[in-house]
């Protein structure tokens, strides 16, 4: 009788233990709700999302209400002169305080949101990429006016502005690639924007709602995106 009771209670203990363990593993197996996102493989950094256009949008209304300071405007000519070729990182045209720093806050204190800098008598251009904090990896000071040796290198011509509208008054197409140029307001708005491309309507922050990449002339955006993607045709 005792023996039988012992076997029955052992069985009950094992059974209850099984239920507890099974229930525990069942509960932990349940996940929170999630959305299965399929990664599209390596996009090569090509513009696949439009959220970059909203990056500087908190400054948009200030840009819209700011009076234009005619005496300190930049032009596209000086803008291109500071670049070795079209799309190249511009030189640092001013002295740098901490010669041995990578950049980061030493640069972002002026280049994150821009503003007038009395000692350089100019507005600081806003960087479209404040997250790339190793600024001096790509931006260097110009140390010589001439070349070390002659080369046959010719600068690629930048696309023209003011000729990208399909009809007078219609929104011009974007004549340039959008890779690393997702943050439209950084270059097109505010007092440091070159006057030819300074937008009259910075407050319409969803730029790509009206402006579409041009793929028929200048730099061919469609070919650019296709060549940098690996999808099958
Ligand atoms: C005290 C504010 C200040 C600091 C700090 C500063 N800059 Fe500037 N930067 C300016 C101003 C103002 C201009 C515009 C100069 C002009 O137009 O003559 C400028 C221009 C530039 C340009 C040229 C942009 C263009 O579109 O041609 C680059 C590149 C640049 N700075 C990089 C840097 C880097 C990198 C650092 C950090 C090592 C840095 N700056 C630190 C104020 C600053
Ligand atoms: C990986 C390289 C790289 C790094 C790192 C980098 N930049 Fe740039 N930067 C570029 C290139 C390339 C351009 C030109 C973009 C173009 O013409 O589309 C540029 C353009 C700029 C411009 C001019 C924007 C304009 O009006 O055309 C400023 C200002 C600038 N960078 C500041 C900075 C600062 C400040 C940092 C650090 C926080 C930084 N950059 C880090 C490559 C870089
Ligand atoms: C790094 C600076 C920079 C960024 C970021 C940038 N642009 Fe531009 N944009 C320019 C320059 C410079 C030009 C003049 C042509 C050229 O050099 O490519 C231009 C030209 C244009 C033009 C043609 C204007 C005309 O009158 O024909 C449009 C439209 C335009 N950009 C829209 C955009 C939109 C929309 C975005 C954001 C997705 C954007 N840009 C981001 C620098 C920039
Ligand atoms: C609701 C539609 C719409 C939105 C959103 C919009 N634009 Fe425009 N944009 C236009 C139209 C229309 C023109 C042509 C204006 C003209 O010819 O008088 C224009 C002209 C331009 C030009 C040529 C210079 C000028 O101001 O006339 C640039 C550069 C430009 N837009 C950039 C931008 C940028 C950057 C943004 C985002 C901050 C933006 N646009 C948002 C409709 C729009």
What is the terminal separation in angstroms? 80 Å
**Number of separate helices:** 6
Shape: elongated
The fraction of residues assigned to DSSP E strands is under 5%
Helix content: 25-40%
Average of the residue pLDDT scores: 83
Record the strand order, biggest sheet. Answer: 1-2
Low-pLDDT segments, ≥5 res:
41-48
Main β-sheet description: 2 strands, antiparallel
| H and E order | HHHHEEHH
Radius of gyration: 29 Å
Note the main attributes of this structure.
single chain, 233 residues, two-stranded antiparallel ribbon, 3% strand, elongated, binds heme C
Set out the fold topology.
Blueprint (H helix, E strand, L loop, with lengths): L1 H28 L30 H6 L10 H6 L23 H7 L3 E3 L4 E3 L59 H5 L32 H7 L6
Antiparallel strand pairs: 1-2
Structural overview:
- With 233 residues, this protein is an all-alpha fold.
- It has one domain (44-141, 162-227).
- It contains 6 helices and 2 strands, in the order H-H-H-H-E-E-H-H.
- A hairpin with a 4-residue loop joins strand 1 (115-117) and strand 2.
- The structure holds heme C (HEC) (4 copies).
How do you describe this structure in short?
The chain has helices at residues 2-29, 60-65, 76-81, 105-111, 184-188, 221-227; strands at 115-117, 122-124. With 233 residues, it is mainly α. The chain has one domain (44-141, 162-227).
């Amino acid at each position: 009788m005792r023996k039988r009771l012992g076997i029955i209670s052992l069985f009950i203990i094992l059974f209850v233990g099984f239920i507890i363990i099974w229930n525990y593993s069942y509960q932990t197996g349940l996940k929170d709700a999630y959305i299965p996102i399929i990664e599209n493989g390596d996009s090569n950094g090509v513009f696949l999302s439009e959220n970059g256009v909203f990056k500087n949008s908190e400054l948009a209304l200030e840009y819209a209400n700011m009076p234009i300071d005619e005496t300190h405007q930049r032009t596209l000519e000086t803008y291109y002169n500071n670049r070795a070729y079209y799309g190249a990182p511009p030189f640092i045209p001013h002295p740098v305080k901490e010669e041995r720093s990578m950049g980061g806050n030493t640069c972002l204190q002026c280049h994150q949101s821009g503003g007038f800098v009395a000692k350089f008598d100019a507005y600081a251009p806003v960087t479209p990429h404040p997250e790339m904090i190793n600024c001096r990896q790509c931006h260097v000071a110009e140390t010589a006016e001439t070349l070390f040796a002659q080369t046959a290198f010719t600068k690629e011509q930048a696309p023209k502005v003011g000729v990208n509208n399909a009809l007078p008054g219609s929104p011009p197409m974007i004549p340039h690639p959008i890779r690393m140029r997702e943050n439209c307001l950084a270059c097109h708005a505010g007092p440091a924007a070159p006057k030819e491309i300074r937008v009259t309507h910075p407050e319409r922050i969803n730029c790509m709602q009206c402006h579409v990449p041009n793929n028929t002339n200048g730099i061919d955006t469609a070919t650019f995106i296709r060549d940098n993607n690996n999808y099958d045709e």
